[in-house]
UniProtKB/TrEMBL annotation:
Organism phylogeny: Eukaryota, Viridiplantae, Streptophyta, Embryophyta, Tracheophyta
Highest taxon of source: Eukaryota
Tagged with keyword Signal: yes
Keyword Signal among record annotations: yes
Taxonomic source organism: Cucumis sativus (Cucumber)
Name of the protein: Major pollen allergen Ole e 6-like
Length: 84
């Protein structure tokens, strides 16, 4: 009987915790996404300009800058530092 009570209590905690994660409003989500999108665009344009000045391959630079800026964005969201 005690195991069932503990299991029910644990399930209640899990359900309550999952409800807390779903409280972000649509406006908050858009604001959060816009912040990172603006940083990504800025990073990408800067990287592309520098890469094209050094190299002549636009396709290579687009892929390289996309990967680099996406990596920086994910690292910032996860609060980690990237070592190059």
């Amino acid at each position: 009987m005690a195991k069932k009570i503990v299991a029910v209590f644990f399930m209640c905690i899990v359900v309550m915790a999952s409800l807390q994660f779903g409280n972000a409003t649509n406006e908050e989500v858009k604001k959060y996404e816009a912040k990172y999108e603006a940083k990504y665009v800025s990073c990408y344009e800067n990287c592309l300009r520098i890469c094209l000045a050094r190299l002549s391959g636009r396709g290579y630079c687009e892929v390289k800058c996309d990967e680099d800026c996406e990596e920086k964005e994910v690292a910032e969201k996860l609060h980690i530092q990237i070592k190059h």
